[in-house]
Amino acid sequence: MTAVWRWAPSAAAVATLAFVVWRLGTGPFRDGVRAVDGRALAAAAGIGVVTTLCCAWRWTVVARGLGVDLTLRTAVAGYYRSMFLNLTLPGGVVGDVHRGVSHGRNVRDVGRGLRAVAWERAAGQLVQVVITVAVLLALPSPVQASMPLAAAALAVVVAGVVLAGRVRPGGRRGRWARLRRTVAGDVRDALVHRRALPVIALASAVVVAGHAATFVIAARTAGTDAPVSQLLPLALLAMLAMVFPSVAGWGPREGATAWAFAAAGLGADRGVATAVAYGVMVLVATMPGALVLAGAWVPRPRSRPVAAVVRIDRGRDA
After folding, report:
1. What letter does residue 145 receive in the DSSP assignment?
2. Which backbone phi and psi does 126 adopt, to 5 degrees?
3. What is the rounded distance in angstroms from the CA atom of residue 109 to the CA atom of residue 150?
4. Taking a C-beta distance cutoff of 8 angstroms, is the pair 117, 110 a contact?
5. pLDDT per residue as tens digits for the range 188-243
6. Which band of pLDDT confidence, cut at 50, 70 and 90, is reported for residue 184?
7. Cα 131 to the chain's mean position, in Å?
8. R_g of the chain computed on alpha carbons
9. Residues 103, 256: contact at Cβ < 8 Å?
């Protein structure tokens, strides 16, 4: 049963991708790959630098709130490596797990390192959902009619997060009591603290804007000439689908984009081509992560012990 649950998300992603291919064929996938040119790749790489810096900045703030040190330089390298692994390995979260474990080993606290990554990702996704709901409330989209209910539910979630950061659980013992104290302390110190919350909100907003801009460029590259006011809601809907487990980034993205473009009257095939172009652009933008990963495998020369050198020199003087 454990194996079934472990492979179920990847199986769902494969099934989604297979359904899209069955309904639309492989033509939109080929069109998406062929449409990508040097200008689109350069734009994606440039935007990727900004969004990665913001993600790394957010990670350092959350980690320090949990009491573990993390420099921005280390965070940028770790984030590039994490994104590259997420886009090349099944599941879409292997890179984040690797990032948390590596950082945890460096600070000799793997549990705290994993918690920092989990809270950092959760905070970014919460800001993304807030921005998405706000845009879908303001601009026409296939789901605009259900947005008031979604906004009310989101308000409850945000209020719950804020309250969780302010509540200080009592001193009762037990596993669940310790878990509640840990969660409340993490939220209070790493997320809603006055020094952390503005940084997390600003960095996450820039990341969402960067990803949406990359999607719009991908849509233009794939031949969609719809106005930005129509593409932006579709981009945010597709980005929400990217949160779900995938196979190296594939599956939910193509399914959601095909549905969104079809519902908006732009054509499901054009939506798939846009999703494929976006996937290629983002993968190229994360290539610095491959260099970081390769650099970790290169053996470093060992320096001679200082004490041994001193002893040898003294022996020669004698």
Report:
1. G
2. -65, -45
3. 38
4. no
5. 888 888 889 999 999 999 999 999 999 999 999 999 999 999 999 999 999 999 88
6. confident
7. 16
8. 23
9. no
CA separation (Å) from 28 to 120, 211, 228?
35, 21, 22
Helix (H) or strand (E) holding 103: helix 94-106
Among 49-63, 152-166, 239-253, 271-285, name the one with the lowest average pLDDT: 152-166
Report the C-alpha gap between 276 and 251 in whole angstroms: 10
DSSP string for 264-312: TTS-HHHHHHHHHHHHHHHHHHTHHHHHHHHHHHSPPPPPPPHHHHHHH
DSSP 250: B
Residue 263, C-beta contacts closer than 8 angstroms, at least 6 positions apart: 142
Closest CA to 116 of 67, 53, 180, 166: 67
Contact 261, 211 (CB under 8 A): no
Residues 43, 210 contacting (CB under 8 angstroms): no
222: nearest Cα among 25, 24, 20, 31: 31
Record the tokens describing residue 84, joined without a space.
């590259």
Domain ranges of the chain: 2-291
CA-CA distances (angstroms) from residue 24 to 36, 43, 95, 111, 309? Answer: 20, 29, 31, 45, 70
pTM: 0.87
What gap in Å lies between CA 80 and CA 95, rounded to an integer?
9
